[in-house]
Design a protein that fits this description.
This protein is α/β, with parallel strands linked by helices. It has a single domain, classed as Alpha-Beta Complex (Inosine-uridine Nucleoside N-ribohydrolase, Chain A), CATH 3.90.245. It contains 12 helices and 12 strands. Strand 2, helix 2 and strand 3 form a beta-alpha-beta unit. Bound molecules: beta-D-ribofuranose (BDR) and calcium ion (CA). Calcium ion binds next to helix 1.
Amino acid sequence: MTEQKRIPVILDGDPGHDDAIAWTIAHASGRFDILAVTTAAGNQTIEKTTYNALRVCTLIGLNVPVARGCPRPLLTEPMNAPSVHGESGLDGPPLPEPAFEAEPIGAVELMARVIRESGDKVTIVSTGPMTNTAALLIAHPELKERIERVSMMGGGLLYGNWTPAAEFNILVDPEAAKIVFESGVPILMAGLDVTEKALVKPADFERIREQGSAVSDIVWQWLEFFYRFHRTLGYEGAPMHDPCAVMALIHPELFTMRDYYVQIETLGDYCKGATVPDWHGTLGHAPNATCIMDVDRDAFADRLVELIGRYKEVGR
Ligand code: BDR
Ligand code: CA
């Protein structure tokens, strides 16, 4: 059987429990050629998310260049999410200290370098505020054509989570999101419309706990921690926001997707950070995003559990 060609990717996020799980399954899948990891300020400050990124990469044995991202949003005041991810940005089980350091260059420079040097077009998996990707497009417009697409977690066509209209990643840096959505780079959007249906439930945590590897032991505790916040809001499981941006690339058959022209609200008394779809095509624009609307929840959870289980096979 011929092996499927690996998808060249940059993992850009703000770990973050669900970012960490997204990267963990991406690495386990063997379906990606992970060229770099870059960090965003979002769930916590850039210092904390970069430290977390290095610890996560050390835990899962992902030995790729890691670079620190833009320290703050393009224009808006910085905002973090300690209520969801804790003061460290990745509270819960103790993690190994980083086995290596971040690159001496920043995220935008590293992204530009790997995109320029890659033989194939590169996909950016964006699971935090989109500051780095926007800065890349501004600083290196010539590289736009070398980006295959941006598979991003953010927004929600129907509702928000940080305000009634806005989802966290977009709200933190709406100008960055606007630049990316208006860039012409194809976008695969995993918004709250799907990610709040991609629940991993306590029975699934248990399946991961039973795997008994070093990585699975950490992942189930991350899930427990992440669920603690969501349980108080009535969720039946932990919403796997960021893992959707990875899973949709390797298992698109689990998802329902629709193309829309999506605009980003950067102003407004009530709707700053909203992702506004042109439901009926009234603007006459071609779609700029493939929006994921639904998921086969059980199959998604099975795939996630199975991918975490692969670490046991390799002694991690
Ligand atoms: C998004 O916000 C962050 O807290 C999560 O990591 C995810 O990327 C969900 O709104
Ligand atoms: Ca995130």
